[in-house]
Amino acid sequence: MKKVDYIIVGSGLAGILFAEVLTRQNKSFVVIDDASQQSSVVAGGLYNPVVLKRFTEVWKAKEQLEIALPIYQRLEALLQVKLDYKIPVRRLFNSIEEQNNWFIASDKPNLSEFLSDTIISNKNQCIKAEFGFGEVLNTGRVDTNSLINSYKNELQSKNQLLNESFDYDLLKQKNNHIKYKKIEATQIVFAEGFGLKRNPFFNHLPLNGTKGELLTIHAPDLKIDYVLKSSVFLIPLGDNLYRVGATYEWEDMSNDITLKAKDELIKKLKRFLTCDFEVVDQVAGVRPTVTDIRPIVGRHLEHKNMYVLNGLGTRGVMIAPYVSQKLFDFIENGISLEKEININRFQK
Fold it and tell me: What is the pLDDT of residues 79-130, one digit of tens each?
């Protein structure tokens, strides 16, 4: 029987960032995952503190970035891999009215440090942008693929990763601990993404899957070194490659790519891009989203050593370190969870 402090189910962003908290706190753990959920792997990986559709601040953006950025820096050192790419985000303006709304937003105290008050004129012949761009500050991209693959390799090397599906029927409650197969743990944290829908302990929570698809294009004439936000995001990856996304689909919950999504993204791209490009890749995954657009974090009502960490939505790289730390402080130090993320908000 292997004894650990924690079992973590899921090795997407939520599971990995919670494992990182445990590592820093010298807690023992094992991660169980069958790689069936792909939302973290197909994520754009942007950290951007502003909702660019409405020019409003992302919920707790400053607090999230203060926790997240040092953690990604530590993970780069640990894994010996580049993860955090500092890159500005520019919002393409479609009218004078959007320019004016940007200036109004940049004057607000909670947004002034994130929004440049200078309009950038367009000098790129490959882009239609007669009203120019607004630039968001303190932004970047985390290479979620490299993070997840490298971290899982690190766990594997330390015998902390089981590559298998979790069998809920084999989970046994024993007084103040739990047993699963040949593992005994004090706590278990479910960080399964959309896979939570199969979890008999937490599937009552209102987790809505939102399928997203991304393209990778090759555009040798484009030559931009910033993320461009218009009807879609355009994210430079190097070597004239750009990630384009994302779509939002509420019916099809598979990880299969579709021609419909490809056509939608190409159509939106051609609204502001005039140069030739070639689609070289397409990926799909189901994001774990919640009705009130907040994560779901907390303890099971009856099983006091069962916890959930989920619902990161489209801003996982920003919010995962934040909610992971909050959950750890709740479990180990008895610090109450914020009501906005606590699953108690859904309990009748």
Answer: 999 999 999 999 999 999 999 999 999 999 989 999 999 999 999 999 999 9
Cα atoms in the Cβ-side hemisphere of radius 13 Å centred on 153: 10
Q: Is the pLDDT of residue 348 over 70?
A: no
| Residue whose entry in the numeric block shows the structure tokens 């995962």 | 320
- 246-268: buried (b, 16+ CB within 10 Å) or exposed (e) per residue? bbebeeeeebebbeebbebbbeb
Helix (H) or strand (E) holding 289: strand 278-290
Report helix, strand or coil for 327. helix
Helix axes 13-24, 144-157, angle to 10 degrees: 50
Domain boundaries, the chain: 2-43+145-206+292-346, 87-140+208-288
CATH number of 2-43+145-206+292-346: 3.50.50.60
- Name the DSSP letter for residue 93: P
Q: How far apart are CA 249 and CA 264, in angstroms?
A: 12
288-293 LR contacts (CB < 8 Å, sep 24+): 288/39, 288/193, 288/194, 288/196, 288/207, 288/209, 288/312, 288/313, 289/207, 289/208, 289/209, 289/210, 289/313, 289/314, 290/205, 290/206, 290/207, 290/208, 291/206, 291/208, 292/345, 293/59
Q: Could you say which of 3.40.309.10, 3.30.830.10, 3.40.50.720, 3.30.9.10 is the CATH number of the domain covering 87-140+208-288?
A: 3.30.9.10
pLDDT digits (tens, 9 = 90+) for 251-272: 988 989 999 999 999 999 999 9
3-state DSSP percent of the chain in helix, strand and coil, to 5? 30, 30, 40
